[in-house]
Amino acid sequence: MENQAKKYYDELHKLSYQAHLLSGVSSLISWDQETYMPEGAASIRAEQLQALSGIIHDAKTSKKFSTALSKLIDIPTGKINIKGLKKPEVAAVHAWHRDYSKEVALPKKFVEEFTKLTSEALIAWCHARKEDSFHTFAPYLDRIISMNREKAELLGYKEHPYDALLDCFEPNATTSEVDRLFTDLKNFLTPLIKKIGALKPADSSFLFGKFSPSKQMEFGKKILDSIGYDMRRGRLDLSSHPFSSASHPTDSRITTRIHPNSLMSNLSAVLHEGGHALYEMGLPAIHYGSPLCEAVSLGIHESQSRFFETRIGLSKPFWSYFLNPLKKTFKGPLENVSLDSFYKAINQVKPSLIRIEADEVTYNLHIILRFELEKALIEGSLKVRDIPDAWNAKMRELLGVTPKTNREGCLQDIHWSMGAFGYFPTYALGNIYASHLFLGFQQDHPDWETKVASGNLLFIKKWLNEHVYKYGRQFSSKELLEKATKHKLSSTAFIDYLSNKYKKMS
Amino acid sequence: MENQAKKYYDELHKLSYQAHLLSGVSSLISWDQETYMPEGAASIRAEQLQALSGIIHDAKTSKKFSTALSKLIDIPTGKINIKGLKKPEVAAVHAWHRDYSKEVALPKKFVEEFTKLTSEALIAWCHARKEDSFHTFAPYLDRIISMNREKAELLGYKEHPYDALLDCFEPNATTSEVDRLFTDLKNFLTPLIKKIGALKPADSSFLFGKFSPSKQMEFGKKILDSIGYDMRRGRLDLSSHPFSSASHPTDSRITTRIHPNSLMSNLSAVLHEGGHALYEMGLPAIHYGSPLCEAVSLGIHESQSRFFETRIGLSKPFWSYFLNPLKKTFKGPLENVSLDSFYKAINQVKPSLIRIEADEVTYNLHIILRFELEKALIEGSLKVRDIPDAWNAKMRELLGVTPKTNREGCLQDIHWSMGAFGYFPTYALGNIYASHLFLGFQQDHPDWETKVASGNLLFIKKWLNEHVYKYGRQFSSKELLEKATKHKLSSTAFIDYLSNKYKKMS
Fold first, then answer.
1. A416 vs chain B: nearest CA distance in angstroms?
2. Reported pTM
């Protein structure tokens, strides 16, 4: 009986493996699209990606696949059908079932229409952003929201239609739960930002100057090496927006952006994308093709990047080691900077208009704003034409700044034009998760500051491997986080971190 | 009735288009494999390529495809079924039929076994070459030859089993015809090489020295620009062996190899691969997905690369323009070289052991050697164990040199380990075709030397576009060559070219 279960499991795994190979190919040609593709190939590349995604969808919803799946689990109820599966295998079967149910819930016609709409919307958004003309994008956004509502109905939900959308990016997260986490955060952040705003800003002039791009690239590689990023299974390239892209644990690539006049943009990109990439490299390749070699969620993925970018890369111990090599590499305005001044400069908090340029404190309010608007748009309590006013009002309320144009307001992000409602919250969840995970990390490495200050960083990856990477999708986000820390998930760890950090700095 | 034909044609084109998109993806990830792929990804990349090739094979042999095809052509007899197709469309249908018949002639089991064998053979060849141990590779080669014989039987042929193999790379070419072309060539080349060998070798010391890799790369791009290579639809990168790879006319990439101590390797690679790439860029994108947007054959492809590499790039007019910029870029030992000395140095003829390092005269004898051995191996008149002796004897006979090891003899090329019997002849056919085409080019541009010497090279691409690129697979190699030149195909043009060139130099 046990052998039978394993046999069926292997059959399903084999089918899924083929689909994963093609998803990997798709990631790879998307990576190429952003790095080395000649501009003239844009249109054929879109067609290649679409052809692949059609084949992948067919493979994941084929009769063969559902037959194999139904030998292990009852598809309508989601109850395991067979005895003899091990615990991780049971979790994998549930994850397969979850994905399959989502794939089949959306009719092909709906998916095609949505793809067509968002590809047109993307062009309209680019144009609207350039011309600062929200009204030319509005009709597209209106249809995108309608289709997202329809999507929510097709996928189903218990409490709130936004739950269904959220669940596509952060499985099992609910609107009410995210609301709770975000409310705690907002209540804490708003006064904190006011308090920081009253302080004299730190000098950060030495972070700007002339920093040779090739030396920046070299320094980025040095940092990647120190955190355990393996260049035999990855690459560092340039692209206009930094990203990470993995087609397999043996091929997990990242990109960065180099400003010849600014130092931190590359360094934080390298740590951020490096954190994402270590997760993908650390997933157990032996389970490739199954959910046991997949990331849990976007939120957990983001927690891995923020762990390295903020909790490590913005920490004093990290720079107590790396400031000297940095000075040696770049000289110039950096030479006379003390560790303390450097630390203060890179941790400067300043409310601003653009999300992707925000510091680790204000960043979350940019996300909360988007979450609140998205929820209202999906509920229907906010109309598309009222977005600019609502956006600006919330910016004032949360951050005390007002965009002068929609370009630096509600038109700044690509996500809505891509149809991705429910995506934004995962960015702030990533911060909450990263700090929650850090509780466990600190418990196991009470001397982490001494270790990091010695330049020995490999123990971080090792800890994350033991508590995150190696499990794939065996646990839900919450289970994983609570298992790693023995603490119930809340915003507390993140709040405490920021609170202590900025108390010390004032 | 006419509309009906067009409707069926469009149906077939649409199915074929999907398969082409995936072939393009496959080219792209192969390109990545040779340029930017992290070494650790080798194994998953092989699996990705295999998965794609399976899907492409399935698409090309699907019931849907054969049904669509059979509405236009009778599959068993290859007779067009329907009225109303235009001439190029009729040619396309024949090409589709030809490809389909080949795809289905080889049973899936055979293809899988062959793939497995050659992937093992490739490893065995690498090892054997490294250790100079022909006997460890011999058993693999033996099985590869048996399977190639079986392949010939499965594909069918009229006169000689080698015809069937040749036909996979050079459609419609026959062993007897190639034999005729090669015999003429051999009879001419053997005495020519002896004659040249008796001359005092030209000084070529200035081609060796220190040549900055970045400047070499820059100069390569300048040359590519001058011949009309469009960087918005291509790229130049580095790889261990130069190659060209196109996934669509808007994405036709090339690579080169830079020796910091030697000048010509990069320049000839850039012209050679640039010639291949211009062909792919010039194919009519409007017919993409059909044979009307495909290259005629490997021989015609090679003729396009050799046209630029040898007929243009080794000509005096070309260097009468480019020698000055070359001197300005690199200075050093080049500065005092006259055009005449430079021309003689780059056209030096010297029998040597390694094919890929051979000059344009001796190169063809390397190919003829391989053709004669392949034919004998397929016939069974030569046994695998006797290859090293036969190889060395033929090297002495044709080129007057003897390899000291099999590594610089019969183990030097990768092709046999990949199972590619019938491939080598296309290299020499490429030379014959290039010179034959040049007849037509000269007729239309009697002043080509003046034009080239002025640095204006775009008219070359324009001519090739009118006579080669724009037709796709509308004509066979021979038809295309004879149409472009109004001369019957023979080795004469190539022989005359070499004969005149080296008469002048002696």
1. 28
2. 0.95
